[in-house]
Design brief:
Elements (H helix, E strand, L loop, with lengths): L23 H19 L10 H10 L10 H11 L12 E2 L8 H13 L6 H4 L2 H15 L7 E5 L2 H21 L3 H4 L8 E6 L5 H8 L7 E4 L9 H13 L3 E8 L11 H10 L3 E6 L23 E5 H4 L7 E5 L41 H11 L1 H23 L5 E3 L7 E6 L7 H17 L4 E7 L2 E7 L7 H22 L10
Helix pairs in contact: 1-3, 4-13, 6-13, 7-9, 15-16
Bound molecules: pyridoxal-5'-phosphate.
The site of pyridoxal-5'-phosphate (PLP) has 14 residues, from helix 7.
Amino acid sequence: MILDEIPALVDPSLEDQLLHDESYQKLEAYTAEIHKVLQAFFSKDSFYKGDDIEEIRSHKLQASLENSEPASFTEVLGFLNDLYIKNTIGFHHPRYVAHLNCPVAIPAIAAESIATAINTAVETWDQSTSATFIEQEVIQWICKEFRLPSRADGVFTSGGTQSNFMALLMARDNYAYQHFGLNLKQNGWSDEVSRFRIFCSDKAHFSVKKNAALLGMGYDSVVPVKTDKEMRMDAKELVLAIEKEKQQGNIPIAVVATLGTTDFGSFDPLETIAIIAKEHDMWVHMDGAYGGCYVLTETHKKYFEACTYVDSITIDFHKSFFQPVSCSAFLVSNKQHFQYVSYYADYLNAFEDKDTERPNLIEKSIQTTRRFDALKVWVTLKTLGAKTIAGYLEKVHFMANEVYQYLQQKKEVFETIHEPALSTVVFRYKPQGIDGANELDNLNMHIKNTLYRGGLASVASTKFNGEIYLKFTLLNPKNTLENLVEILDLIEAAGTAYTKNNFANTLTDATL
Ligand SMILES: *Cc1c(COP(=O)(O)O)cnc(C)c1O
């Protein structure tokens, strides 16, 4: 149908809701209102107000978009405050020690609002112009920190999962091309690929397996390699695992070394792994989603010396560089390998239009429209400097050690299983007289849920040898040992109460 007349907007007052010269004041007004609400959020004295299931159900109903009429921003913000902001988790709060969510650097938030308002998409030169160079500069800076060769390059991604995906994709396609002359990008699947094997430690991130499946190789293509007492990949076990797979007719194509495992912060022995991998012509990927930024520190840079041998690196700035989500990068030691993801679209980045002075970053990305996430890292570096960030990282590492030392002195109620290599501490509440795996699992899950639901503290849980442990992930340099000991006291109190109520029969009076 061709319209004779352009229909008028239903509500003319909504006309100035899109950002342009005339509506700019509106953004300022909204921002002022937002800051009031945010200020209240950041001045709360708990990380979370706590939850109960009735409230969760009622919030689910309130979030409904059915039959909703447009309202003023002030009204919506008020509603949002009740529904979300007042109820949400404060990652900046010292009682939040659960997952890899960091407090965010203020220059990064400022940069984020610039990038968002301007809405630059870093895909082609004509859309991003000099933003291209800012992203390239951040990439080159971090490549240098890892001492990658001059032909190294990288791209920002949505997170460690996507970066690990790109690594495995390149490892797969490169091996297929080099050893079988296969062009998977052009021709797709080939039977050889089902025999491809990827090795990583049994403490590696689940995204290795998930990505292997997404890439058509399947979960079974990922071979978990045993770890030593320090939770690092055991190089001897790697050699054995590679040999075993070869004997079975499978084809080892890649090793993922984790530098900073999610649970234990452990560092796989990169150099040894790289030497073994190169003997078999395998791709070496370093997953530094959590630990990668520690390359900037005096305490940990030694672990990264062998980066000169790796083929690719994952690094998450939204985990340990105090950046808002998302902010992650994928680096390769040889930029040629980006050919496995590049595509030339006539409407966007036609091959004929290739111009080295005006690069199109899309040729390195699996995304098309992409956020200008590099800006916040650049502004953070320019404002705070890498040393400041490194100092924060060292601080949280030392804090993890202090907690560990403290737990060592309380062996009658706490059990530890590793010395912190980074900024996590895995332990469990284990009073004397309770030894059953099931009892301990229930007890520790109960502690975690009690603290969380009561808004007292958020502690993570994970499994070690099939049993449940609690975990502190420390990413807030403003935290203190004193506060962390308070959380341990809460854990002990919740544990004691549960033990008295549930295991009274199994314990003697003396142990209670
Ligand atoms: C968190 C993590 C990932 C995944 O990163 P996202 O940014 O959450 O996608 C990958 N590897 C390791 C070691 C991680 O800790």
